[in-house]
Amino acid sequence: MSQETNSTVKTAAEDPTSVERTRSGCCYRPNVDILERDGDLYVVADVPGARSDSIDVKFEDGTLEIRAAVEPTASEGRSCLLQEYGVGDYYRSFQVSEAIDAGKITAEYADGVLTLRLPKAEAMKPRKITVETKSN
After folding, report:
1. 89: Cβ–Cβ under 8 A, 6 or more apart, which residues?
2. Which of 18, 33, 78, 114 could make an S-S bridge to 2, C-beta 3.0–4.6 Å?
């Protein structure tokens, strides 16, 4: 489903300079689709269980970071016989090689899916050049 070009985005896992986490607890790498539509980049990330006020998105020096804190579920008065669903925070970062207009980045969160719109800078968008015909 995800069609990503190597020249556009580089994940932190592929980057030897990526940082290590200092917070303890479980942290998941959310599944992400990166799309290019109408000259803009869209990042669609699965972060189920997060609340919109616990999601932190930063774009600085060409690095996009997504963090989402998820509160553990209360299990008072019950014991699990089988537990396959883990709860933890989400973290993902990307190096974006495109020139992005950081002031126009938008984020929407609905039904466990975070959608980021990263508009390219106007100077980087393709421009159609009209060819004029001159008659002699």
Report:
1. 23, 25, 26, 27, 28, 67, 68, 69, 70
2. 33
- pTM, rounded to two decimals: 0.71
Which of 1, 14, 30, 20 has its CA nearest to residue 113? 30
pLDDT tens-digit readout, 40-93: 999 999 999 999 999 999 999 999 999 999 987 766 777 878 878 778 899 999
Q: How far from chain centre, in Å, is Cα 105?
A: 11
Taking the domains of the chain in order of start, what are their residue ranges? 9-18+25-72+81-122
Cβ of 46: how many Cβ atoms within 10 Å?
Answer: 14
